[in-house]
């Protein structure tokens, strides 16, 4: 098919969400989250509409605790047992509510501060394996020779098969100066290599830029953190003086697991007119929530001394823009994509996004632990909810010219246990049925393409090199550049059926 031309909102982590890319040193998936100074202001502060636990409930909890302590086959630490009890209670609510131990909560804040100790890789789960998306520039991993597309098979002596992404990342963490032995399988060479990597403090910009062809700029944002707005503005200013002058932009948000919502609002503000609605949050109570606009007050960080976007060339609000997304574009990434789509500022290209449309409040509780709780939903400028639906691209494009024929179904919000329903989708039940049918059909197709048992087994995608975003084998980027130049765009052979709120349909160059 062809076609021409409430406080600091952050993304925190959930072990159930396996689809997003992580930095080594981050414990799990980044998902749109709101952080407040604390969940409860003072000990003993109980909302007036909440009754205390009954004596019967407390007795049941105490009895279970005592039985486990006295009769369980192994020794159980009191603190670990209580932490697990709270984790179970919170995690049963939805995939993104979570209770953090002291160490986990400390690591979360370390990541949000923009630095961590690790080896310097971006990774994610693919077909049940830990895949390297890219080594960060000038990090131990890049210097050791680890490449995009490598699969991590062992961390020291522990096989990664069966580990969650959070568990694998945790094992690769460690103090700066310590060593970790990584065994990797390289598909392009069909060989296994072992690297001993010395961990270091990682401080890397989430924004990179390039000029893939004269007159067209490529901007990649890998996550949203405290430096994203400043880094974006710093890189955009010199691009405005590129010769020949810029005629179009590509904003790459693929495999971006999210980050800080203010930074997402700031990124949207770089490309949208002043005072434009970016996203609206709505809590359970009527008339609660907030509408975020392209104003400094809505993307300001406490660390900012002035507006990083002040004086940014106005050309960036009018230049033709294509935004690239995929199934690993999550949460705040979806906020930015939907805002640019709803306002008809950009054409969205790629594959439907993850589909997370909820906001969590994260704060400290007694003893240094932390609690993340889903408290609100967010809505796009046109009033859509992307919960379970994702942002559906205006132009569906596969990762490879012949389609993603070997790819197993990506994990999305709708696949997660206890996911919340889309409040605006009357076809929610139908959507789930059709989605599960599509997943099964894809699995059958992949299985049918596998060779006979007498032949050596072939892993999905083994025979072709993995896509490196922004590089010469990036087929989707090539299609984006084609669209900007009014040339033929090779669309996906399997078009997505939309059962949610619909896309804006921005397709005119």
Secondary-structure blueprint:
Blueprint: E1 2-3, E2 8-12, E3 22-23, E4 31-38, H1 55-71, H2 78-91, E5 98-100, H3 102-112, E6 116-118, E7 121-126, E8 129-135, H4 140-144, E9 151-155, E10 158-159, H5 165-172, E11 179-186, E12 191-198, E13 200-202, E14 207-213, E15 216-221, H6 228-239, E16 248-252, H7 261-271, E17 277-283, E18 289-293, H8 296-299, E19 321-325, H9 332-342, E20 347-350, E21 358-364, E22 370-379, E23 395-396, H10 428-449, H11 475-484, E24 489-490
Parallel strand pairs: 4-21, 15-16, 16-19, 19-20, 20-23
Antiparallel strand pairs: 1-24, 2-4, 3-7, 5-22, 6-13, 7-8, 8-9, 9-10, 9-11, 11-12, 14-15, 17-18, 17-22, 21-22
Tell me, what's the shape? globular
Structural class determined from secondary elements = alpha+beta
Briefly, what CATH class of the largest domain? Alpha Beta
CATH architecture of the largest domain: Alpha-Beta Complex
Biggest β-sheet strands, sense, barrel: 7 strands, mixed
Rg (CA only): 23 Å
Query: Structurally, how many domains make up the residues?
Result: 2
Strand content: 15-25%
Fourth-level CATH superfamily of the largest domain: 2-enoyl-CoA Hydratase, Chain A, domain 1
Structure description:
- This protein is of the alpha+beta class and 509 residues long.
- The chain folds into 2 domains: 117-202, Pdz3 Domain, CATH 2.30.42.10; 207-360 and 373-490, 2-enoyl-CoA Hydratase, Chain A, domain 1 (Alpha-Beta Complex), CATH 3.90.226.
- The protein has helices at 55-71, 78-91, 102-112, 140-144, 165-172, 228-239, 261-271, 296-299, 332-342, 428-449, 475-484; strands spanning 2-3, 8-12, 22-23, 31-38, 98-100, 116-118, 121-126, 129-135, 151-155, 158-159, 179-186, 191-198, 200-202, 207-213, 216-221, 248-252, 277-283, 289-293, 321-325, 347-350, 358-364, 370-379, 395-396, 489-490.
- The strands form 5 sheets. Strands 2, 4, 5, 17, 18, 21 and 22 form a 7-stranded mixed β-sheet that branches. Strands 3, 7, 8, 9, 10, 11 and 12 form a 7-stranded antiparallel β-sheet that branches. A 6-stranded mixed β-sheet has the order 14-15-16-19-20-23, sandwiched between helices.
- Residues 447-456 have a biased composition (Basic and acidic residues).
């Amino acid at each position: 098919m062809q076609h021409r031309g409430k406080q600091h909102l952050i993304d925190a982590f959930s072990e159930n969400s396996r689809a997003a890319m992580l930095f080594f040193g981050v414990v799990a998936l980044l998902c749109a989250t709101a952080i407040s100074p604390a969940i409860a202001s003072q000990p003993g502060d109980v909302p007036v509409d909440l009754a205390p636990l009954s004596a019967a409930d407390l007795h049941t909890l105490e009895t279970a605790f005592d039985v486990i302590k006295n009769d369980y086959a192994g020794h159980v630490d009191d603190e670990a047992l209580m932490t697990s009890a709270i984790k179970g209670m919170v995690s049963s609510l939805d995939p993104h509510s979570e209770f953090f131990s002291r160490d986990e909560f400390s690591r979360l804040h370390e990541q949000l501060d923009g630095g961590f100790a690790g080896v310097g890789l971006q990774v994610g789960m693919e077909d049940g394996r830990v895949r390297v998306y890219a080594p960060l520039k000038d990090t131990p991993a890049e210097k050791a020779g680890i490449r995009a597309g490598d699969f991590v098979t062992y961390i020291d002596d522990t096989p990664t098969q069966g580990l969650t992404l959070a568990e694998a990342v945790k094992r690769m963490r460690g103090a700066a100066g310590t060593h970790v032995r990584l065994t990797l399988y390289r598909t392009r060479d069909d060989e296994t290599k072992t690297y001993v990597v010395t961990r270091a403090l990682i401080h890397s910009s989430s924004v990179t830029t390039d000029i893939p062809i004269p007159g067209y700029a490529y901007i990649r944002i890998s996550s949203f953190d405290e430096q994203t707005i400043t880094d974006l503005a710093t890189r955009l200013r010199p691009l405005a003086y590129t010769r020949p002058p810029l005629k179009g932009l590509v904003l790459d948000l693929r495999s971006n697991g999210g980050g800080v919502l203010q930074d997402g609002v700031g990124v949207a503000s770089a490309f949208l007119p002043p005072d434009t609605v970016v996203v609206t949050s709505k809590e359970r109570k009527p008339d609660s929530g907030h509408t975020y606009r392209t104003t400094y007050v809505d993307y300001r960080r406490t660390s900012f001394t002035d507006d990083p976007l002040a004086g940014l060339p106005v050309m960036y609000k009018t230049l033709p823009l294509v935004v690239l997304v995929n199934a690993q574009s999550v949460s705040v990434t979806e906020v930015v994509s939907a805002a640019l789509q709803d306002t008809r500022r950009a054409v969205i290209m790629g594959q439907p996004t993850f589909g997370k449309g909820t906001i969590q409040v994260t704060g400290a509780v007694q003893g240094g632990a932390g609690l993340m709780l889903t408290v609100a939903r967010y809505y796009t400028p046109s009033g859509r909810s992307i919960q379970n639906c994702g942002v559906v691209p205006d132009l569906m494009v596969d990762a490879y010219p012949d389609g993603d024929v070997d790819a197993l179904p990506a994990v999305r919000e709708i696949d997660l246990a206890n996911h919340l329903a889309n409040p605006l989708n009357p076809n929610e039940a139908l959507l789930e049925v059709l989605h599960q049918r599509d997943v099964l059909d894809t699995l059958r197709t992949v299985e049918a393409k596998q060779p006979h048992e007498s032949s050596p087994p072939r892993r999905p995608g083994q025979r072709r090199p993995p896509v490196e975003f922004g590089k010469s084998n990036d087929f989707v980027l090539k299609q984006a550049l084609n669209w900007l130049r009014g040339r033929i765009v090779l669309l996906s052979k399997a078009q997505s059926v939309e059962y949610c709120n619909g896309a804006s349909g921005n397709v005119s160059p």
